[in-house]
Design a protein that fits this description.
alpha+beta; 11 helices
Length: about 450
């Protein structure tokens, strides 16, 4: 009997030990696994290699980049005073001045107070006020603007030790790279949002000027325009400019002018007062078959650029510029916008399956076309200015598609000197002014005809 109880006791004891061992070996590790699952998921980088997972890597830390940049991004207040007519007496004695206020952002790019912003942030301003991150306010002077690339350069007098953001090479920016957008959305000063670079060389439909945006999913809203897009080292890679939205608020994508383009525009504005556009001297093949090619197919090589003398031929496909891959036209124009006339670039072309490298000296673009008036204008040479005894103007080279100019028999060979009493300094400047014409206001043109006679016209 004792033997039976002994066997039963041993069995019970064995069951207890077995059950305890089960709980120790099975249940407890499950709890440990559950506790470590979430931290492991948080610590694995987005670009991790599944074969080599290092769980000791910390999450990306944006605090250093934010601290470096937030003090160098400013609030821009644009005040535009306009007279409005609200009564019969206003009609006879003048309207009541009413202030229209717009706001945006800007980036300090030098310790002595130069600030870059968007042209649309400061457009039509009578007064510009800058507020620093420390709440100090300064009046800003408008140095120069470039409407085509939506860049404006401002200056404040606030000493020589201001915080500023250094430029980075935007060609080195990679799709998938972490970035920060710093600005003042909805007047919420010193706002920092994070995202990744979604695409490069983005061409926005309906925007015929800037066609090489950096696209990011960092949240950008009204008021962010003119603010900084920076990498995680706190370097400037772009100027936040636009969003695509049906509501007017951020819906997942924002766009920035690349820093290489912004820096080149600023340098040109400071040195020349306008932007010096560089060209290769080619016409691009825009056919549907050419659009299926990775690269940019050349339809024809012109006589006014360096491509011809470098040995580039009709039908060649541009696949690289200075070792930067070119997949589409907007990427090519993005590279050229960051270069100056006279610069040499290394162009890699695909010619019937064989890659060739050509050194091309870029030429200055001097011919521009007005979409609104259907007129083509070209910069005057120094010799032409000397012959006419003028220091400004733009030569009309074709007006065959222009209803307005041909109505007055103004065409090829005429020199356009003033528009609305504003001196025309270049062909690009003339086209910019002409294309603002809506047909609802008077337009005054001053020209010199081929005989050297001064003529004036009113639209």
């Amino acid at each position: 009997m004792r033997k039976v109880f002994g066997i039963i006791g041993a069995a019970i004891l064995g069951g207890i030990v077995t059950l305890g061992g089960y709980k120790l070996l099975i249940e407890k590790p499950q709890v440990v696994v559950e506790q470590t699952t979430t931290p492991n998921m948080q610590m694995v980088n987005a670009n991790y290699n599944p074969e080599v997972i290092n769980t000791s890597i910390a999450p990306t830390d944006f605090t250093e980049a934010a601290e470096k940049t937030v003090h160098a991004v400013v609030h821009v207040k644009n005040t535009n005073s306009k007279s409005s007519v609200n009564s019969l007496s206003d009609l006879f004695y003048g309207g009541v001045p009413r202030a229209q206020v717009g706001t945006g952002s800007g980036v300090i790019i030098s310790p002595d107070g130069y600030i870059v912003s968007n042209n649309h942030v400061i457009a039509n301003a009578n007064d510009l006020e800058i507020t620093l991150n420390n709440k100090k306010k300064y009046k800003a002077a408008l140095i120069a603007t470039d409407e085509k690339n939506d860049i404006a350069l401002l200056k404040i007098e606030a000493g020589f030790d201001l915080p500023y953001i250094p430029f980075a090479n935007s060609d080195n920016v990679k799709v998938g790279e972490w970035v920060l957008a710093v600005g003042n959305p909805y007047n919420l000063n010193s706002t920092v949002t994070a995202g990744i670079v979604s695409a490069k060389g983005r061409d926005l439909e309906g925007n015929r000027n800037i066609d090489a945006f950096i696209q990011t999913d960092a949240a950008v809203n009204p008021g962010n325009s003119g603010g900084a897009l920076v990498n995680i080292r706190g370097e400037l890679i772009g100027i936040n400019t636009a969003i695509t939205s049906k509501t007017g608020s951020f819906i997942g994508y924002s766009f920035a002018v690349p820093s290489n383009i912004a820096r080149k525009v600023i340098d040109d504005l400071l040195e020349f007062g306008n932007v010096q556009e560089a060209i290769l001297g080619i016409n691009v093949d825009g056919s549907s078959s050419a659009n299926d090619i990775e690269g940019v197919k050349i339809a024809s090589v012109t006589d006014d650029g360096g491509a011809k003398s470098a040995g580039i031929l009709d039908g060649d496909v541009i696949v690289k510029v200075n070792n930067v891959k070119i997949s589409k036209f907007s990427e090519l124009t993005g590279q050229l916008k960051a270069k100056r006339p006279g610069d040499f670039v290394e162009i890699t072309i695909d010619r019937n399956g064989t890659e060739l490298v050509k050194q091309v000296k870029l030429s200055k673009k001097d011919t521009y076309y007005s979409q609104g008036f259907g007129v083509q204008l070209k910069d005057l040479t120094e010799q032409e200015k000397k012959e006419k005894g003028i220091s400004y103007g733009a030569k009309i080279v074709d007006a065959s598609n222009s209803k307005g100019f041909t109505y007055f028999n103004v065409g090829k060979g005429y020199i356009l000197t003033k528009i609305n009493n504003i001196k025309v300094n270049s062909a690009s400047e003339a086209v910019s002014i002409l294309d603002k014409y809506t047909g609802n206001q008077h337009f005054y043109l001053e020209t010199i005809n081929p005989k050297g006679e001064l003529e004036r016209y009113r639209f």
